[in-house]
Amino acid sequence: MGAGAARPDVSSVDAFKHLLLNAKTIAVPGSTSGIWLVTDLFPRLGVADRIKAEMTPRGSDASGMVATGAADLAVMPVSEIVAAKGVDLAGVLPPEIQMVQVFAAAIVAGSQAVEAAKRLIECLASPRAAETIERSGMEPLATAR
Questions:
Q1: What is the separation, in whole angstroms, between the first and last Cα of the chain?
Q2: What is the pLDDT of residue 136?
Q3: 88 closest CA partner among 66, 110, 103, 71
Q4: Smallest Cα–Cα separation from 92: which of 82, 105, 107?
Q5: Phi, then psi, of 87 in degrees rounded to 5
């Protein structure tokens, strides 16, 4: 939703479904999350053929469509919304309709920088990094807090 607009209710599946059905245009990113919305969640909610969802080209900005008024709302990862200009986070979707994406780090077999990779992974899993991860709209490992 555009910056400064009244925050719609997204606290329940029914409230979210109502929001989708009343939006003229819904922007979704042309990435994994947008593809999941269009091919899984919207059909599962029974709204796919009753809404106008516009998938932005990969690498472009679905939140920008809201900021310019080209879409009423964008449904996308929180981490992308909190970093976007001209829009506000309305809220997070109820747990039962969330798509949880997990990011992981590993050391590639044959790496020439094993010790540096271990230090990077330790840093990413640290309490200090957890604060930054939370500010960026993601959830850190429970052990990092």
A1: 31
A2: 83
A3: 66
A4: 82
A5: -135, 160
Nearest-angstrom CA–CA distance, 103 and 19: 29
Could you tell me the pTM of the whole model? 0.79
Give the position of tokens 């039962």. 96
Q: CA 99, CA 40: separation in Å to the nearest integer?
A: 10
Counting as low any pLDDT under 70, the low residues of the chain are 1-4, 59, 142-145
Distance CA 34, CA 36 (A): 5
129 CB burial (10 A radius; 0-12, 13-18, 19+): middle
Q: Give the other-Cβ count within 10 Å of 78's Cβ.
A: 15
Q: What is the DSSP string of the chain?
A: -BTTSPPPP-SSHHHHHHHHHH-S-EEE-SSHHHHHIIIIIHHHHT-TTTS-EEEPPTTS-HHHHHHTTS-SEE---HHHHTT-SSB----PPPGGG---------PPTT-S-HHHHHHHHHHHTSHHHHHHHHHTT----GGG-
